[in-house]
Fold each of these.
Amino acid sequence: MTLITISNLFPRPDQPQRGLFNAELFEAMADVLRIQDSGSCVQNVCLVPEWRIWKWPKIMRWNKQYSESGIQISEFNIQTIYCPVFYLPLIGRNLSWWFYGLSLAKLVNKTEGYNAVFSTWLYPDGVTATRFAVEVGLPAWIMVQGSDTFHLENPIRRKMILKACSKAKGIICVCKALADRIIDAGVDVVKVHVVPNGLDSKLFKYRGKEEVYKELQAVVQHSAFSIQHSKIILFVSNLVPVKGPDIMLKIWATLVTRSRKSEVSNQNLQLMIIGDGNLRKKLEKQVIELGVSNSVIFLGNRPHEEVALWMNAVDCLCLPSRTEGMPNVVIEALASGLPVVATDVGGVSELLKNEPGARIVPIAEIRNQKSEVGGPSSGSNNGDVIARFAKYISEIFREDVDRKAMAERNKGRFSWKKQAETILGLMNGVKVVEKTSE
């Protein structure tokens, strides 16, 4: 089998951390196909949304640099075509599929010998890729990953999504919650399959704090950083509204306030924030307003290898997301033996149920409400959610969680190879027993 993969979420020279989960999956699919047949391959198309047309030549040069010079521009060995796409942020969302289509049209004559088109992200990627696949006579498969389902709330985009799903051969959802939402929207249940995300088990595994501390000390030049006599929370995500970083800071302020009242210095509490995004400046201002700037460290985007170290250096992962699919950061935490406190959104409960080292925070429908830093808020239950998070995190801090045993329980539960084999099996007509947890 030869496969065309299409997504705007994929590592690029200017954004090497972008869409790492897709890169891991695509490479695993390529590896599986090569084992099955040395002539098989994956041709990846990375769509690069960019309204500044004068930057397109630079994007096109990424392809020349890769093909002619043999220079690897990312850590992944997948053959990739970088394709610039005109894109109008927000106001142009309903036209994104059309602009994406103009760019893909240039590849119509390059599809000979391929067997299927696999796209990730429901809209515009999935919609456009399915139209492209129908045009070139190939079966289309769409992967739904989480936040992309919010496009179903727009009547125009919803109609296009449902039409694309009706023409697609199959729809892959990374958790049951997403599958249920897609089916409720009107997608044929026969086409929908649940295939959980994968994991790099060589990278994300249990290691003792002392083992990773020295490596991290060399990376973090910040006077507040210390794992000695400290309790550290980790937040890993893009700094965008749906991931709830503003909620995270309110949770943190509550914990710090409680520690002061109990006469425990707040210097013994630290919050490490890994990730970047359009909310960062507002969040840095919020930290000052909440009076917790001396215990919060913004680390920005960090390499995947370093994130794996942090998973072993801290005491708890906090994920106050407003919406999710099957969050990879939770899968990575489980494999590392890191306790988790997360909102009950998407596939979180599927991942964390029956795990004694985790807590799940119930949360009401919150996507359509405005937060103080822009985007959806935690709504009328804001105080309840923050209080519950603070309570559960405090419990985790007090408990003696056997982190090594936690990592062992989750060992082998997820892998990119397993996800790749399952998806490719579905493409080849193999019926799979679909389950999201063991």
Amino acid sequence: MYDRHDLNDYLLESWLEFHEALKDHPEVKRMLFDPVTGLPTTPLLFPRIESLLEERGEISLLCLNVVKYSKIEEIYGWKVFDEVMRQVADALEHITGAELRDSDMIAELMISGNAFVVVLSPPRTTESMAHEHLTKIARRVEDRVRAELKSSLDPALYPKFGCYVGAATVRHDPKLRLERIVHDALDRALAQADTREAQDAEERTRRLREILDSGEIRTLVHPVLRLDDLEVIGYEALSRGPEASEFERPDKLFKVAYDSDMVLKLERLCRKRALEAAQKMPPGRLMFVNVEPEAVADPELRDVMFSSLLAETELAPSSIVLEITEHTAIADFSAFRSTLEYLRMLGFVVAVDDAGAGYGSLQCLAEVHPEWLKIDISLVRGVDSDDVRYQLIESLVTFADKVGVKLVAEGIETREELEALRRLGVQYGQGFLFSEPTAPFPADEDIRLP
């Protein structure tokens, strides 16, 4: 999402420059179309806005801001985010003639940005747009674009985005430059979109609190296999919120939990559900349990081996692998390391997740000295056809052999990736090629063995 305070001076300065350049060099226009969506950018709206202001005295506009709830480009790549922006542009075009009129103009705020501008046509029966009517249009456009995106985006991708629409009115003032008038209106519209996002955030916090209070967290498991013979050696416990809700995916759960300071409470519930699921785990196997860095110092985690839960299930601490997942940076590695050493003394095993990604996975690796290391999906994806990824994983295999760390490749989806990882000497792996996350515990024969 845009930081409006940083954006203000840049936009106004660039618009003033563009306006002057367009007067002297009309060929510059082609440079002001966004290459991703094909839409014009805001400076190309100025002639239409100027004409309407001189004719009507005022116009109304909408500003639609697309908000990322997680590290979309880092996880999926910039092409996926570009595709989302194309889908938003298509959604706006698709609702033209319904929520929007055919004469409304759609543009992007700036090239390669994540906000769209709609200049609304003047009302047919009144001189000006009533505030209540403008607000209703903004809400209808917001709802329709969200509905369009929900039907067109991958179900796993849709919850990672938010879409908020603000509105403002531009009034003609011959004493002020057109660019300044438009800039002020867009600033107000973006501020209104920010308010909409804040209201949504409050509602998400309320819903997350209800989920935690009612214990509505489920555990799915994803098998971890030995790659040479495809024998199951363990499972990763994956936490999920209520089915078919925006909180079903863990990235949304933890994003809201971090924003609302409920990470520890969420961690405890997820860990409790994972250990409850482990009661039925086949003997001799491992359970990888994700742990946020700031939850490592949780006294409940340190005491869990003495809890009645472990006593009743007869789970040995050595069968639990604490998988450190870096959603936030680790502030104090010294304290972090000493806490992990205490957990090791209790019998737990430690893994570092997302090698090759994260806020400081290499430093985390150096400080933690894990028994297990998981290779991030971003390196595994296409390793069979990408020499850089191949060489990076080869370096990790060499490192793991020298320090005695067991490697797990995450996100294996194709036979070609599996064969490349085998050639590289990666010992273990997991991915949709073998099994999708499922309720505990799948029978070994149900796991696809290619």
Amino acid sequence: MNNPILWTSVALLVGVLMGLYLALILKSSNTKRKFEQLNHRYFKGLNYLLNDESDKAIDVFIQLAETSHETFEPQLALGNLYRRKGEVDRAIKLHQALIAKAELPERYRTRALLAIGKDYMSAGLLDRAEVLFSELVEIEAHTPEALQSLVEIYQQEQDWLQAIKSASRFQSATNRNMSRPIGHFYCELAELSLAQGDEVEAEKYLASALRVDKKSIRAHLICARINQSNKKHQNAIDEFDLAIKADPSYIPVFIDDMAACYLAIKQGEQLEQKLLQLMDQYRGVSPVMTLADYYAKVKGVDAAADFLSEQLKKRASFKGLDALLELSDQQDAKLKNFDYIDVLRELIAKLLKGKPKLRCRKCGFGAQSLHWQCPSCKHWGVVKPIYGLESE
């Protein structure tokens, strides 16, 4: 909405709608003089608006709000447009004038309260917005919208318990499935507990996360991390297996940790079988690279390079090629003597530098590291590893 032409077009549309609305008033009103007064002030305000004299336009519309609630709808819409355009102060001023009108019908007042709450959110005044939305929930007015806004506020404030409470109430009020975000809220609480050294409390929150969202891969990965740090490697492997069943697209995120658990309990053969199995069901290159790394330790660099080279014919990947070139540095064979090997490695490094490793499946946001909540669109569990020549 920052495009001046677009803003002017929208303003004209609002003006036309206001004109039509006033025409309806003329049909239903018994006092023609009252309409003529409203009509004059309305066009005066619209003229200010189109001449980019927004402050004067708002003053006129505020006067209209003080004398009649017949123009409530277009003025509410105009305030919303100001908010979307980024002129939050003007939106607040206009919406406050609507609420301040004496004898404003309750159905209008609650809608104006909802609008001001959104204005406050846009302005970053979260505490004021929270008060208004909580009031609307308490009086059962515009409950779904108010609850949804409260969930957004509590996420920004990282008040996860209140976010869970509001999200649960929103789910009950709308029948919309909120299990995924609620599961992540419990995981956030678990992460906070772990940061404070309270594993018992963290495990309680993780159990709640899995109770709400049985496919919470994040909860399984946190459980795996706890078990791995406590040297309960088999338990960690079990959690990694559950994570794979929940969502195999995250395999690149944890496959090295899973391999480390197998090796910690001397289960190299089981690791090999697991990775071969993953190669059959997962189209990315990460299991191949992890298995090549294992082969380098137990069979030698030449065997690992031969295996990786053969697999890259089936799964083309610069990431895999870079790993192959790294293995070649440790070989005494032909690749090490390739005159342009250093140039090739440098080109691949430049190609991969700065490339996102993960991407949001909702909005396309690219990231180098895992975000459980997309920083752009704010959806949960949608930032996943990228498949393609430059990544998996």
Amino acid sequence: MDTHEDKQFLENLVKALVDHPDSVGINRTVDEMGVLLTLDIHADDMGKIIGRSGNTAKAIRTLLRVVGMKNDARVNLKINEPEGGKGMNREMSDAMREDNPSVAETKSLDQAIDDLKI
């Protein structure tokens, strides 16, 4: 993925959701496991990105997988807890842990799109 389409997609998406878009930072690394996008956000925006029961974070990860499949890359998201954050409850912690490649299942494009349907 030479154009870093995944990073630009994540940046546009997150900045549209948060109250402090200037605090959004994304680091992109590539290794044998695929692409890892590490997201840093303002402490006050953490709840908006994680969502109730981690649903927003799950949806963002699903969309990133779709973007990655389009470019034959496995894309994972790690959300860093901001300094001064309020600490994570169990639901948030579990939702953030889902980016672990050894636990995450690989889905076909059709499965990922079906997950997005309401």
